[in-house]
């Protein structure tokens, strides 16, 4: 924390010293500054360039312009729609790096209103200068800076409501009990519930004795909840000092409206300041600071988890006191001793088997507050060394981030009371109550789950740029960049150390050549292999500037070809070692269940792996081709990219390379096999973005279409299969694959079971169970019969956005499409077995009467080991189109604001996540075990002063 305070102090001192200097500037000089001739700058790795000189594998989004017509709270809301190449990942590679103002940071700690521009670095040549941890793509966020001019103030206020899309549909008590009895009979067991009990639960005459609990009812949930936000921005400055500052507060309520859950909320308060100072004609300084305070307070009740699991007939959470007989002094004394008499009318009900439930928890279990605090500071110094060499500059930067999270919790215990019912004189009454548990409030606040994360960024660079004879444009850079992240609970810091070199040349902005390389250093590797070399080369050609191209419809056309090899250590890790350090070293452990008296209970030795001094980087080898341009006076702009490459050298333990005695089975188990570079993945695909602009009278129309298709297939794996099991090989299949069995309907009867392959999943197979195909023909159904079923990710991603401006009205709409992916319906809503809660899906279960029409297996009180496993029976397509946003904005005419202090005023209304078009819409819009998905309706006002 002391570094945060030191940084803030430096920022304040520099600000005041610069303000003093800038006070001497003649304001008349600033009025004559003309920036119109400056081409739009795009931030790429460690520098900014003119947009026309962007080479392939880079896309840019003008977030400031988009937020004028599209309100959102997500910093990356436009990334997957406005440009191609992003689909939760970049070019099919997960774990993209996020860089904010040159510092490695979280994207969710910056709001769209704070952002000037987002650059997506996709190609190998575009990311190489950032080093190993950037090898899978970079999202580069640039926040707003101060502008020359008088102080200006922007204020934005939003408020809206979240409306749930859908809730899971579960059976009521009577229907559940009926089906549960059926499941018991299917398992050759006696029914658990009598017909009379089922009838009593169905009538609803006494829901306290015969519960029919529905935790999704309006008794416990609101129909909507509020979200409100206010943001202020102030900016201005002169040629010496420019400043930008913003602050805001956000608060969101909750759907829950029972007990203390009605006070649940999430809040976020933040402040950011960016300062630019020209201290001398050869020296400029940037100093930025940001603080974010995030709180989430809720009652200690796992409401949504309970709603998905608590069966409707189990318990009546609140029981009216009126059911107690007036002269039952013992019961009254027991109940009156409770701390929790709800609204003076109810006591907390339960049973010996159910001594707690989410409703009772909401009233009595206490509260929890999640607290997150993030502080960030960074500064940058730019020194012009033209006195040494014209065009030479030096830059250095330093940034520190500190994030702290913890929980403030009050744990309360409470008693529940199980009633014994009677109806000796007609109506139901409580004859007695039995108390389980005690009421206990410690009054002590527990601070737990404390965690911190400390990140620092430091670097420096020399760059040189020079134009010779007007046409020869040279650029060179040498950059040293280090960032390190320390996290609580981790024994080793996450580190990225990199030296980058770039040399580029273009002739008349027509022919381009660029060489960019990096020398990464990784402590994950043996000392001899820690330094790598990552070279990339890019060639560019603008054919429209050629004489032979002549007069065409093209305004601009740029063709780029890029290739390179990036050394990365991101994937040097294992399931039990996510940090990935020391995997090249042998591991020898003590083990055993008996020992001599002096060996502390461990008499055996276990070897977990051997040394591998040759372990090396994993290499991203890639070539990509890009085509960018515009035509018909920018009626259409376009950007296309094709990429193909491999991720070579993924680590694995090659058991097929070693004799069987290198692996020790039995006790103690172990292996001498080391980790080696072996696996290869082939990756290919394309992305595109096109924008069409057309004026029709007073109507200004813009249509944007973008998308990406990618695939990553296993090319080499250490696999040895017998010929009959060759189908189990992952080679040639997508790495994000769903593997499972092929179903063949249901078993119709016992003869069908007898004449089919043996299903060996540890459960007796009965008619109505799922029948599987014997892929390897060995007469047994087991995991050796699994096949590739499909990809769980989205192969093809499509984004469409539309803008229509007419006079002072602006309509903006955005939709996203996902195609080619698959999923498994494997939540507790579908995989119903044992004592689980029954959803409406079981109404289509298999019975003797429905064997020709059933779409769900027979019901069972067993574990469903045969039916509830990965297979194409549960497979579904995730294809869908989402209408993500629609917003209408009205700008108040300037003539209406004349004579006021208001320079501009806009009002807007919008809807978000409004519509899903899909065959599986019901499933895709339904959450099980968590808060429901919502549609958000917002109204906002923005003023410029």
The counted number of beta strands is: 45
Report Rg: 33 Å
Largest sheet: 22 strands, antiparallel, barrel
What share of the residues lie within helices?
10-25%
N-to-C terminal Cα separation, in Å?
Answer: 36 Å
The low-confidence parts are 1-38
By secondary-structure content and strand pairing, the structural class works out as: mainly beta
Mean pLDDT score? 91
The dominant shape is globular
In terms of DSSP E residues, the strand content is over 45%
Summed up, the helix count is: 13
Comma- or semicolon-separated keywords:
945 residues, mainly beta, 22-stranded antiparallel barrel, 45 strands, 10% helix, globular
Structural features, described:
The chain is mainly beta and 945 residues long. The chain has a domain at 265-461. The protein has 13 helices and 45 strands. The strands form eleven sheets. It has a 22-stranded antiparallel barrel. A five-stranded mixed β-sheet has the order 3-6-7-4-5. A two-stranded antiparallel sheet has the order 1-2.
What's the short story on this structure?
The chain has 945 residues and is mostly beta strands.
Topology record:
Blueprint: H1 2-22, H2 27-31, E1 41-44, E2 47-50, E3 58-61, H3 63-67, H4 79-82, E4 97-100, E5 103-104, E6 115-121, H5 124-127, E7 138-143, E8 149-164, H6 173-186, H7 195-203, E9 225-237, E10 241-252, E11 265-280, E12 283-299, H8 303-307, E13 318-320, H9 329-336, E14 346-348, H10 358-364, E15 366-384, E16 392-413, E17 416-422, E18 429-436, E19 440-468, E20 472-487, E21 494-507, E22 511-521, E23 534-541, E24 554-568, E25 587-591, E26 604-609, E27 618-631, E28 636-652, E29 663-664, E30 670-671, E31 676-696, E32 699-716, E33 737-740, E34 743-746, H11 750-754, E35 758-759, E36 770-772, E37 780-781, E38 787-791, E39 796-806, E40 809-819, E41 822-824, E42 875-877, E43 880-891, H12 894-897, E44 904-917, H13 921-924, E45 934-944
Parallel strand pairs: 4-7, 35-37
Antiparallel strand pairs: 1-2, 3-6, 4-5, 6-7, 8-9, 8-45, 9-10, 10-11, 11-12, 12-15, 13-14, 15-16, 16-19, 17-18, 19-20, 20-21, 21-22, 22-23, 23-24, 24-27, 25-26, 27-28, 28-31, 29-30, 31-32, 32-39, 33-38, 34-36, 39-40, 40-43, 41-42, 43-44, 44-45
Helix pairs in contact: 6-7
Domain TonB-dependent receptor plug: 84-138
Protein name: TonB-linked SusC/RagA family outer membrane protein
Keywords: Signal
